[in-house]
C-alpha cells in the first residue's frame, strides 16, 4: 500500500474552498496510515454505525500551530453547525470492535468525558520542525490514538515525541492556511462550520481544485499562495523576492488578457501579499524599496481595473483609493487612479464625485486628452440632473 495518497475537500459554511492532498508515510506508521486511509476512502462500519471523515468538521483551529479534525463520533452531520461540548472528545478507529461500542452504549451511565473506540499504539514519534505535517491527535496519554488528527501550520517542537507522525501536505497548502485563519471562539472552535465535504484516495488525474485562489502556473508562477510556505527563492534576498512578486503579477496580467478576471484578481492579491511581506525599509535597501512601492501601485491599478470589468464598482474604487493614500506614488499612477475611480463614480451615477476625480486626474496628467471628454460628459450629466430637479420642483408648485 506504500505510496497511496489521499485528499480532503474542504468547505467553510456553504462555500467550497479547495482540496488538501496528503502523502501517507506507510513504512514509518503503517497502522496510522491504514486507519486514516480507510476513514478517508469509505469509512468503517462497526455494528449499525459507520464512521468516517466525510462530513466531519474541524473542531480546533489555532493560528501558527495547527488545525484539528477527526472526531467521527461527535463531529459529523448537524454537529458541524452548532458547537457541542462533546466535540473533540470522541473518535473511532478501524481497529474498534463491535463489542467495545456496544458495551459503552449499554452502560447505565455512559462516560460523557471521552468516547473513543479502537485505541491503537503510537508510531513514528518524531520531531515537528516545520508546518504541514500530518499527525494523530491522541487523548493525552500514550497509545490513545483513534481517529482525530491534526496538520501543523508552524514548527511545533513541544509536540515532538508525543504524537504519531504519519504524513504531510503535498498540495493545497493555501487551503490549510485558509482554514487556519478562520474566525474562532475562545476554545478555538470555528465560528463558521469548516467541513470535510469529500475525501478519498487521490490520483494525479483528479487535479487539485481550489476556489479561493488560482493555481494556474501561466507566466511561470510556481510560488505558494503564502510566501512563508514557499521554497522557490531566498527570502533574505530583496531581488529574488521582487522577482517572485513580479512573476505572480505578470501571471495575473496574462489571465486578464484572457478575460479571466476572477483568477487574475487572485493573482494580483497573491502578488500584493508578497510585496507587503518583503518590501524592505528605505534605510535597508532604498532601490528595492522604490521598486516594491512602484509594483504595489501597479497592483492596485490592476485590481481596480479587474473589479471594474466585473462591475464591482465599490471594490474597484476602494483599490484606487488605496493607491491614492500611498505616500510615495508617481503622478502618472495617481492620474490613472483618479481616472479609474472617476469611472467607478460615473458608472454609479455619482457625477459630482466623478467630476472631482477627473479634474484631479487632469491636474496630475495635464496632457491627457481622454479625461477632457470625461470632464465634459460629467458636467453635462450634472447639468441634466439640475434641469430635471428644477422641472420636478416646478411641477410640485404648479
From TrEMBL:
It comes from the Eukaryota. It holds the Pfam family TPR_1. TPR repeats lie at residues 335-368. The lineage of its organism: Eukaryota, Fungi, Dikarya, Ascomycota, Saccharomycotina. This is peptidylprolyl isomerase. One of its GO terms (molecular function) is unfolded protein binding. Residues 7-201 form the PPIase cyclophilin-type domain. Keywords: Isomerase, Repeat, Rotamase, TPR repeat. InterPro entries: Cyclophilin-like_dom_sf, Cyclophilin-type_PPIase_CS, Cyclophilin-type_PPIase_dom, TPR-like_helical_dom_sf, TPR_rpt. It comes from Lachancea nothofagi CBS 11611.
Amino acid at each position: 500500500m506504500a505510496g497511496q495518497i489521499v485528499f480532503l475537500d474542504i468547505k467553510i459554511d456553504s462555500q467550497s474552498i479547495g482540496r488538501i492532498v496528503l502523502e501517507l508515510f506507510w513504512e514509518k506508521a503503517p497502522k496510522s496510515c491504514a486507519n486514516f486511509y480507510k476513514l478517508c476512502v469509505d469509512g468503517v462500519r462497526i455494528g449499525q454505525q459507520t464512521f468516517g471523515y466525510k462530513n466531519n468538521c474541524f473542531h480546533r483551529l489555532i493560528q501558527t500551530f495547527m488545525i484539528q479534525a477527526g472526531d467521527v463520533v461527535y463531529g459529523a452531520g448537524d454537529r458541524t453547525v452548532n458547537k457541542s461540548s462533546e466535540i473533540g472528545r470522541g473518535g473511532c478507529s478501524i481497529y474498534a470492535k463491535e463489542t467495545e461500542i456496544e458495551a459503552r452504549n449499554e452502560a447505565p451511565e455512559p462516560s460523557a468525558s471521552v468516547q473513543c473506540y479502537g485505541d491503537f499504539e503510537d508510531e513514528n514519534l518524531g520531531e515537528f520542525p516545520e508546518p504541514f505535517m500530518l499527525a494523530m491527535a491522541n487523548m493525552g496519554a500514550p497509545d490513545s490514538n483513534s481517529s482525530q488528527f491534526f496538520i501543523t501550520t508552524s514548527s511545533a517542537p513541544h509536540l515532538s515525541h508525543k504524537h504519531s507522525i504519519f504524513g504531510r501536505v503535498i498540495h493545497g497548502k493555501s487551503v490549510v492556511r485558509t482554514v487556519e485563519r478562520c474566525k474562532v471562539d475562545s476554545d478555538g472552535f470555528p465560528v463558521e462550520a469548516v467541513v470535510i465535504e469529500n475525501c478519498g484516495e487521490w490520483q494525479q488525474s483528479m487535479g487539485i481544485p481550489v476556489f479561493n485562489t488560482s493555481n494556474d502556473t501561466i507566466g511561470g508562477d510556481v510560488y505558494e499562495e503564502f510566501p512563508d510556505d514557499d521554497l522557490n527563492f531566498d527570502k533574505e534576498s530583496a531581488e529574488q523576492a521582487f522577482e517572485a512578486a513580479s512573476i505572480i503579477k505578470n501571471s495575473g496580467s496574462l489571465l486578464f488578457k484572457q478575460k479571466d478576471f476572477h483568477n487574475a484578481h487572485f493573482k494580483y492579491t497573491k502578488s500584493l501579499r508578497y510585496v507587503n511581506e518583503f518590501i524592505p525599509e528605505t534605510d535597508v535597501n532604498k532601490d528595492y524599496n522604490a521598486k516594491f512601492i512602484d509594483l504595489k501601485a501597479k497592483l492596485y491599478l490592476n485590481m481596480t481595473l479587474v473589479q471594474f470589468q466585473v462591475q464591482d464598482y465599490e471594490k474597484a474604487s476602494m483599490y484606487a483609493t488605496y493607491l491614492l493614500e500611498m505616500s510615495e506614488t508617481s503622478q502618472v499612477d495617481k492620474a490613472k487612479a483618479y481616472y479609474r475611480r472617476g469611472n467607478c463614480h460615473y458608472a454609479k451615477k455619482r457625477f459630482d464625485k466623478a467630476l472631482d476625480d477627473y479634474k484631479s486626474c487632469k491636474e496630475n496628467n495635464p496632457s491627457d486628452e481622454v479625461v477632457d471628454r470625461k470632464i465634459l460628459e460629467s458636467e453635462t450629466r450634472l447639468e441634466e440632473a439640475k434641469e430635471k430637479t428644477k422641472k420636478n420642483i416646478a411641477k410640485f408648485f404648479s
